[in-house]
Specification:
33% of the residues lie in helices and 15% in strands. By secondary structure, it is α/β, with parallel strands linked by helices.
Length: 207
Amino acid sequence: MATVDVFNIQGSKVSQAELPDAIFDVPVKKSVLHQVVVAQMANRRAGTANVKNRHDVAGSTRKLYRQKGTGRARRGDIKSPLMRGGGVVFGPHPRSYEKKVTKKVRRLALKMALSAKLREAELLILNGFELAQIKTKDFVAAVAALKAPNALIITAEENRNLELSARNVQGVKVMHCDGLNVYDILKYEKLLLLEGAIKGIEGRLLS
């Protein structure tokens, strides 16, 4: 197990904690991370874009004018794709962009992302993040003391003061350990992991 320092929100070292090698010391493969992130982003797409085809457009099916003798191009009804307001050809319709990734690969990618943060010294363990009141100024001061202006903060349980104090701060996100995912870990520069959340992560990835 890797032994790391534990800090308080003032940035002072208070103790040490052990991180399991099965989660925080896994060889990193960019291809696996890429596969999971692409799938995660694809699954967020709504896929609700829709156009009206020729048969969906309201209008008469009467031929606009006779076929011959006018000197103009031949025309069918007013719903033709060539006409303004007509149907659209080969446009988008509601669909699913879902990409399936096996549970085993998703877990592996999550371990790799956590291992990468630890290896690059971008993982910080905190003994807690308790704020006396809901106050953005206090939260910003704590983040500044930790030198983590761009960070993902992982909590073990609901922390209302922290969540509400951080919600308007750009570049920072607070998340429960159950929602931990590869995209958010890689998106933010620092990963601030509350000490209590380690057990939650172990239970999720080692079960």
